[in-house]
Amino acid sequence: MAQNDIEAIAEQLAQKQLDAYNSRDVEAFLVPYADDVKVFNFPDEFQYQGKEAMRSRYANMFENTPDLHCKLLNRMVMGNTVIDHEEVILKKGDAPFYAIAIYKIRNNKIAEVHFIRKEN
């Protein structure tokens, strides 16, 4: 597979999960992820593994945060890695928080996510 194809797939996966996040659709959100996805706080603080753990965390958040919105500020794609700089609003009127999400793609799925979060 050509490098451009790998990068296009990686970017599509990151965008699909972002669109579903903003729609608060947990099932669509999970589609781009590998069944055994691993989630970390950057650089290597393990948080959880697997779609079921992800489903329980995000289903609750999506249900309880009707104002939830993630604005993509910047995206970089190189090979099988996507780095998104994001502004996240949990509740209208509250200050947003900023995060960087690093997605590692394997076998056409998001296999790892590393988060860097900055509070305002």
Summarize the structure.
The chain is an alpha+beta fold. The protein has one domain (3-118): Nuclear Transport Factor 2, Chain: A (Roll).
Question: How would you describe this structure to a colleague?
Answer:
There is one protein chain. The protein has one domain (3-118): Nuclear Transport Factor 2, Chain: A, CATH 3.10.450.50. Helices cover 33% and strands 44% of the residues. It has three helices and six strands; from the N terminus they run H-H-E-E-H-E-E-E-E. It has helices at residues 3-23, 26-30, 51-64, and strands spanning 33-41, 45-49, 69-78, 81-89, 97-106, 109-118. The protein has a six-stranded mixed beta sheet with strand order 2-1-6-5-4-3, covered by helices on one side. The radius of gyration is 14 Å and the shape is globular. It starts with a helix and ends with a strand.
Please write the CATH class name: Alpha Beta
User: Can you tell me the residue ranges where pLDDT is under 50 for at least 5 consecutive residues?
Assistant: none
Side by side, the strands of the main sheet go 2-1-6-5-4-3
Q: Number of helix segments?
A: 3
Strand content: 35-45%
Our measurement of the CA-to-CA distance between the termini, rounded to an integer number of angstroms, reads 41 Å
- So, CATH architecture? Roll
Give the H and E element order.
HHEEHEEEE
Arithmetic mean pLDDT: 94
What Rg, in angstroms, do the CA atoms define?
A: 14 Å
Global structural class: alpha+beta
The total count of strands amounts to 6
State the helical fraction: 25-40%
Stated plainly, the CATH topology is called: Nuclear Transport Factor 2, Chain: A
Report the biggest beta sheet as strand number plus sense, adding barrel if it closes. Answer: 6 strands, mixed
Q: How many structural domains does the protein architecture include?
A: 1
The coarse silhouette is globular
Domain SnoaL-like: 15-113
Organism: Arthrospiribacter ruber
Pfam families: SnoaL_2
Protein name: Steroid delta-isomerase
